[in-house]
């Protein structure tokens, strides 16, 4: 009976991780630039080599990089890179991160920043400073202009391979992943929302919850059988 208990415990733990990921996706369905998490499952045979049972586990979490729905804002500094490209921004603690959250503004030090305060980087990896003068405008080519003067060009990249999440809408290449420079066009006056819809998330949540409940019921059944076996073996 113990083997059954361990198998169902592993199944319940895997489903619990899936529920956490789905709940996070649902909570961020309207978060600009958010990319949904997709847990991956795998079954393992025990170290003894026995093939009559397998232990399930959530072994990794991937991220869905497909574009989400867009909303029109008409704000001149709201930008949306096309072709699934990402903007380069300064990462927390240093380094570079990548985001699809293109709600940009000029901060108190006249630097271009996202709505969450991350500094936007140009092609050379430097923060973009906006000089006093006409309000900055972003062209389809990603070039930022103040009047007729070109200030800088937004760095755009395509993420290739595995990525890690380092913030609600921030990603960075994981080991084996790359950030490749891109010349993707840029649309202005639009913002991309999270790519995990509420309806899709609710369906996934209900399915995962049912599987979790089934694992817990099986666990209780195995525990009950184990207790009865122990009682049967007692000398009265």
Automatic annotation (TrEMBL):
All residue ranges annotated as the Flagellar basal body rod protein N-terminal domain in the record: 5-35
Higher taxonomy: Bacteria, Pseudomonadati, Myxococcota, Myxococcia, Myxococcales
GO biological process: bacterial-type flagellum-dependent swarming motility
InterPro entries in UniProt: Flag_bb_rod_N (IPR001444), Flagellar_FlgE/F/G (IPR020013), Flg_bb/hook_C_dom (IPR010930), FlgE/F/G-like (IPR037925), LlgE_F_G-like_D1 (IPR053967)
Any Pfam family matching the protein: Flg_bbr_C
Predominant location category: other
Source taxon at top rank: Bacteria
Name of the gene: flgF
This protein's name: Flagellar basal-body rod protein FlgF
